[in-house]
Amino acid sequence: MSKPIKFCLSLFLVTSLFLSGCGSSSSSETRGKADEKVLNVFNWSEYLPDSVIQQFEEETGIKVNYTTFSSNEEMYAKLNSGNLGYDIAVPTLFFIEMLVKEGMLEKINKENIPNLKHLNPDFTGTFADPNDEYSVPYLWGSVVIAVNKELVKKDIKGYEDLFDPEFKNSLVMPEDNRAAIGAMLAILDYPINSTDEKQIEEAGELLKKIKPNIKAFDGDNPKGLLITGEAKAGIMYSAEAALAKRSNPNIEIIFPEEASFLWQDNFVIPKGAPHKENAEKFIDFILRPEMSKEISESYPYGNPNNEAVKLLSEEIQQEMTIPQDFFERSEYARDVGEATLLYDRIWTEVKQ
Question: pTM of the prediction?
Fold first, then answer.
């Protein structure tokens, strides 16, 4: 990302964070000392069971301060404002790509993480970190459609079907500009990583057309509106849809016929992390097959831990499964460079 883009994105998002704040169970905005029995984790909401954190604390005596964010942009803005004491963050690959380029991450000491041996090599050596110097895979997934079939009789096959007036003020979409605009790019048969100004503008106009159907943009708990019936359908991350179906059997998960947005979230250690060794100890703990299994049972995203997957029930494995043809027509989001400003501008216009 060029310096002007970095400055504009950071200024906008830091101002937003100052006004609204982020979800937090306890503050991690203290630097502390390297030998403290403390770990400051910055993660997505509803992404790590409390039981796993408690087991780590009991075993190690390390106190975990856990703070959440609802978007990659929010996470980036916090880290870019100068590390406020975070030891671990969990960004998506295309943001890791930016963080590496901008020198905002610590190199990870792999000798402190022997459980790396359990990882499926398909999820290591990514475009964001080819030599696995700065990141460790956590979970992965896709963007899907979830529909309450008790409220919707129409056959839904893809994103384009959600423009039907039947869905007026009854859709939920992710608080994620790349996922939302990416869905519109897919309808237009454009790459979801497009940097073409005309294509992105067209996708933005399409997103504005569907806005009357959107009840909420929700990055924390999109499944909630679907479970209660306040929303008839939604575009959401795969495990959110699976969890919605667990709560309400009337919910059907649809892998859109268009291309879709794939993502992978990795652990990283921000530059200047005060408790780096504690962070590496935590990552190693999470990679224990029994711990990773527990995470997938609560949040059934794709799991890159081979040994953990073997421990999961067939039911959970089915919830995590993405059809091969859907995977092949979909794309991982990438850093779009200077086009980031265009995505941000369109997103701001849509949200107004």
Answer: 0.85
